[in-house]
Protein 1
Amino acid sequence: MTLDQWRAFLSVVDEGGFAQASEKMHRSQSTLSYAVAKIQEQLGLSLLEIRGRKAELTSSGHALLSSVRQLVKDAQQMEQRALHLAQGLEPQLRLVVDVAFPVDLLMKALQHFRMQNSFTQVQIKEVVLSGALDELQKGDVDLAISYLPPNWLGDPLLQIEFTAMSHPQHPLQQLGRPLKIRDLEKTTQVVVEDSGLTQKVDVGWLNAAQQWRVTSIKTAITIIENGLGFGWLPTCHVQTQLQAGTLAPLPLAEGGTYSSPVFLIFGREEGRGEATLALAHSIRSVVS
């Protein structure tokens, strides 16, 4: 049995008869009839009954129909994937993303990319600060969205704003005046730690008497939201909490916010594939 024969069988079933399937597939009725007859002969089963001009499934035909549909669908997907590869489109991409990058923009970019490149798998690794450099130096990253590491080139995407925040009932919020550095030095600061291993860096003010270091922004938000400390958080990640009133900006006299640029960086100087270029285009389009 061949896929072509099963396609003929499905067409007869879906169109309701050999004449209708012949018109749909632009093939003669005798060709389709022969294909279906060969399947039935090899299986030793009757799959279709002819009633007037209509072809109806037998009980055996009904039992096999869903499996036949899946078989033909899998074959079509395999053919499309093979064409995808023959055109030079990568079967897999590795994307490194700094955790501060807005999640909604990343999802929109991936959705845009997926519409045109459904057979390219995307592996995403989240990093903090110099963690992107570690991954780029390994040589197996296609694209990175991160701060620009030393000795690398990249295209600027956007500025990410960080705001000093705490729970509205945190003691710092109760002082009733603009805060100064000495106020921050007396309490607990929550810091998202650099995920890099070779060239760790720190960003921003880090002089609190006690620091709680975490490895994800989500954990930092949860800790601060529960009143256990303060910290600078990406403003784009806490809009829900700000609206719900579980986080509030600290009334700092100065330095309450700062911005950091994020770049789009190609990980491979040579051999950039069409899928890599398409993903880069999707990211730029969504950000712009």
Protein 2
Amino acid sequence: MTYHGVKFEVKAVDKNIPSGSRLKELKYWCRKFHDCNLAPAYKGGSYGNLSFRIRKGGNEFIITGSKIGLKDSLSDKCFVRVLKADLDKGVVYSRGAKEPSSESMLHYAIYKKRADVNAIFHGHCREILCSAGRLNMRQTRKKEPYGTLRLVNSVLESLGKEDFIIMKGHGFISMGKTMAQAGKRAINIYNSIA
């Protein structure tokens, strides 16, 4: 897979950099995803993006910025606050110094649909994708291009109440009530097949 950047319009409300104690935990999971080969590096970034819902009952979230390396020492400016997304128009409204991750529309749509989900970790792992059928994991029906409304709709159609879903030919999404739950779920699945 080759990364070509975001495929939606970004409307940055301001350049205010997210802050807060929960960013430290998100940075930990970014590094952990890299170390466990769940978000492999490419020149200039990593294949994967992680987010957490800011407050219960709301759909705003903090997500990794576009084109960041999860293996790197991440500063607060590597993260973006997504305020909302207009899926019909393909517009994401954000705050921060970077563009939000290319899968920001997907994260927004899941948070909107699933009030029980407070963390979404998206990664890429060949071993998990190859084992999806054997382990009877929920999958989307077909491969769709990253960062598109087609991918969003494909995931929403397959999501149900699952906390782990395979995006066929693409990657996986691990969800949880907490970041620890989303992260440990992905690592446990990887460890069970590695």
